[in-house]
Write a structure and sequence with these properties.
By secondary structure, the protein is an alpha+beta fold. It has helices at about 5-10, 10-15, 30-50, 50-55, 75-85, 165-200; strands spanning about 60-65, 70-75, 95-105, 110, 115-125, 130-145, 150-160. It has 6 helices and 7 strands, in the order H-H-H-H-E-E-H-E-E-E-E-E-H. Keywords: Membrane, Signal, Transmembrane, Transmembrane helix.
């Protein structure tokens, strides 16, 4: 059974810091956007280094993360457990990931809350040897506590109709149908041969 690395893709939550921006911010919010740029780089570097403690230090205690297979984890402990399951445990799925997140535009600020959105292009190597690149979309909500911005919610998705895992599933399904078809043909040939042998058995002796 193939599981989306988006489950594993937990990493994608961490890779994105809410607001790496390409455009120049307004002077009023320049300091905020500068801080968010630093956070983005910090999170992406920590993810690619698989430094879980460093990642978690930038999350709100009640953070909510929705993975691309619709798994929902709430709180740092739940996210730590998910990361351990997907990338470190005995039944882990992901061997390593390199994430690259881009923002669509400046983080939208609403007082002490910010909302960012963008795309990602992420390279996964799974423990079964599968090597894939996934193009995703994400939305992130941030909150400011004191002089720090923390990630409060992150939602990640990918195209369910066109992605590398779906292509792999289709190829495996086609291979399975081919094997079943060949097996059926072989079984039919064997049965037909035995039936012909029985029908051509020793002729009855004339009286």
């Amino acid at each position: 059974m193939i599981r989306l690395p988006g489950c594993c893709v937990v990493a994608l939550l961490f890779a994105f810091s809410p607001s790496a921006v390409l455009a120049e911010p307004s002077s009023a919010d320049a300091a905020t956007h500068d801080a968010l740029r630093v956070l983005k780089q910090e999170m992406q570097d920590a993810l690619n280094a698989q430094d879980l403690d460093r990642l978690l230090s930038h999350l709100h205690p009640d953070v909510s993360f929705t993975t691309m297979n619709n798994d929902v984890r709430v709180g740092k402990d739940a996210i730590r457990a998910y990361y351990e399951e997907m990338m470190r445990g005995p039944h882990r799925i992901v061997d390593r990931v390199q994430a690259n997140f881009e923002v669509d535009d400046l983080t939208r600020l609403y007082g002490d809350t910010g909302v960012a959105r963008g795309s990602s292009r992420d390279h996964y190597v799974l423990t079964d040897g599968t090597d894939i690149v996934i193009d995703g979309r994400w939305t992130c909500t941030l909150v400011r506590e004191g002089d720090r911005w923390l990630i409060a919610a992150f939602h990640y998705s990918t195209n369910v109709f066109d992605n590398p895992l779906l292509t792999r599933v289709k190829h495996l399904a086609l291979a399975g149908v081919t094997v079943i078809g060949l097996g059926a043909l072989l079984a039919g040939a064997i049965i037909g041969r035995r039936l012909r042998r029985r029908s051509a058995g020793p002729a009855a002796h004339a009286p």
